[in-house]
Amino acid sequence: xxxxxxxxxxxxxxxxxxxxxxxxxxxxxxxxxxxxxxxxxxxxxxxxxxxxxxxxxxxxxxxxxxxxxxxxxxxxxxxxxxxxxxxxxxxxxxxxxxxxxxxxxxxxxxxxxxxxxxxxxxxxxxxxxxxxxxxxxxxxxxxxxxxxxxxxxxxxxxxxxxxxxxxxxxxxxxxxxxxxxxxxxxxxxxxxxxxxxxxxxxxxxxxxxxxxxxxxxxxxxxxxxxxxxxxxxxxxxxxxxxxxxxxxxxxxxxxxxxxxxxxxxxxxxxxxxxxxxxxxxxxxxxxxxxxxxxxxxxxxxxxxxxxxxxxxxxxxxxxxxxxxxxxxxxxxxxxxxxxxxxxxxxxxxxxxxx
Length: 354
Hints:
With 354 residues, this protein is of the alpha/beta class. The protein contains eleven helices and 20 strands. The strands form five sheets. Strands 3, 7, 8, 11, 12, 19 and 20 form a seven-stranded mixed β-sheet that branches. The relative contact order is 0.15. Its cofactor is Zn(2+).
């Protein structure tokens, strides 16, 4: 094992550094991991550019990264289900206490939760990282490290589809064909959605959505009227969708989502936009359209692993760029420019494969 723990550390907006930090020692019920694959998320880039997301502000140096997989090197006292050599996917949100949200099975809503790369908690974009063993999930041999790292964004899709009540025969609109829109599409299809419209400004992203199973890619333009967009969706499906998942956070897109959804349907808000957004609330009220929020995910890793192992879901095409850990700044710049879909950093010097 290296003596040095190369890590990607954010000091302040725009100030991203590669630093050598101490190799951590696992405590009770923790494991030390040799990190393998870590995806870059839009939130990582947002912290890098702006130093904050909502109330979460970077006030001290913070290691980035939360879409991750690795190999167990050491287990702390009390760990029974994992041993050195096991390949694992990491769930980045770990409850710190058994509060009412934990007891209700909605631990993602716990105000005191630890979450990788959300200030002040360090993430796992480094060579060596320790994590709660209960939130490390063993990967079957048929699931690669990169697929393991993609379970984190895939979990957003699972949680969003669960919140929307997606089931066999559901018709859907997904607003936005970025990484999160695409995983929502993959999960929706695996859960039995019959027809899915997916909208985006980018023809390139819509082409990938089509490859991944979208029935109707819908290219939109800035300035399109939301109610007009809703009519286009109805024209493509032949009826209004049961469920709309909004992944952009853009005000006009949220408006279109509400106009488009059928009476009694559900709009799931995944994308984060401005604090105050003007929406046609009366339209939602008189149609009895439920508007449901999404905050990360909970209880999704076992389902995601089963989906990947059974080949019901294929996330491999999402990875379009790979960089060694030493080139982290270039990798972040690639993501910032919106090139490709998912940029993956390879943290193990001796194993740069998928």
